[in-house]
Amino acid sequence: MSQKVLIIEDEEGIIHLLNLYLKDAGYDVVVARDGADGLALHAREHPDLVILDIMLPAVDGFEVCRRIRAWSKTPILMLTARIGEEDRINGLELGADDYLIKPFSPRELVSRVRAILRRTSGQENAEVHKTATQKEGSSILHFPGLTVDLPARRVEANGNEVALTPTEFDLLALLAQSPDRVFTREMLMNKVWGYDYLGDGHTIDVHISALRKKIEIDPKLRYIKTVWRVGYRFEVKTRSSASSS
Ligand code: CA
To answer: What does the domain layout of the chain look like in residue ranges?
Structure first.
C-alpha cells in the first residue's frame, strides 16, 4: 500500500509541482489549500506525512503544526518562504520534524520525504529497524526514571508515558544506546535524518531541548549532556548518586 502525503499549501504552482513529483515517487497525495481544511483532512485521511506551508489562509502553519502535535505524531515537513532563523526554530519547537526553505528543489523535497518516512515507519524498513533496536535482548533500555522501549517506540519518564515526536525518539534512542559516547551534531544529523543534511546545528539543538523538557522531569536526573562546541552525550546516573548530590 502506498504511503499517503498530505500537502497543506496555498500556492497553486507549488501544489502542482509537489503533486507531480510525489506521485511520481509512488506516494498518494492529498491536498488542502488552507490551514483549517488541512486540519480536517489530517484527521480524516490519517496521512503518513504532512508537508506544511507556514503562510496559509485561515489558520497559519505554526498553528496547524501545534494542533496536529496536540494529538498526533504524524511527521511534519515545514515549508517556509522566510529565511528567518526564528521561523525555523519556532516550527521545530512546535514539533515539526524538518523544514525546507522556498524555493527548494522538488528532488530535494522528495528525498527529505523519503528519509523522514524511512525512519518513522520502522517496521517497513528492516535495515533502519535493526540499527534502531540492535539485538532483541537489549531492545528495552532501562535507566533510573527512564525506560526506552525501542521496538514499540515508547518512552516512560518517572513511570509515565511520554509522547515524543519521531525525531525526538530517534535522537533519544541513538544517544541512549551508546551511553557516554559523544555524538557530534553532524553525526546526529546523518544518523537520525539519514541524508547529508544541509542545515545547521540549530535543528539538532532545538530537538534536543524539546526532548529534554519531556524526559528530564526530575531536575536531578539529567540524561543528555551538552559537550561544549561538539555535540551531545547520554549520561547514565544512578538514582542514589543523583539524589545524594
Ligand atoms: Ca503560502
So the answer is: 4-120, 125-238
Tell me, in angstroms, the distance from the centre of ligand 1 to residue 93's CA: 20
Topology (CATH level 3) of domain 4-120: Rossmann fold (3.40.50)
How many Å lie between the centroid of ligand 1 and the Cα of residue 60?
9
Q: Is the pTM of this model over 0.70?
A: no
Instruction: Flag residues of the chain having pLDDT under 50.
Output: 123-136, 241-245
Cα of 8 from ligand 1 centre, angstroms: 9
List the one residue out of 151, 202, 201 whose CA is nearest residue 173: 151
Tens of pLDDT, residue by residue over 60-102, are: 999 999 999 888 889 999 998 766 677 777 888 888 888 888 8
Distance 61 CA to ligand 1 centre (A): 9
- CA angle, 214 then 85 then 234, to 5°: 35
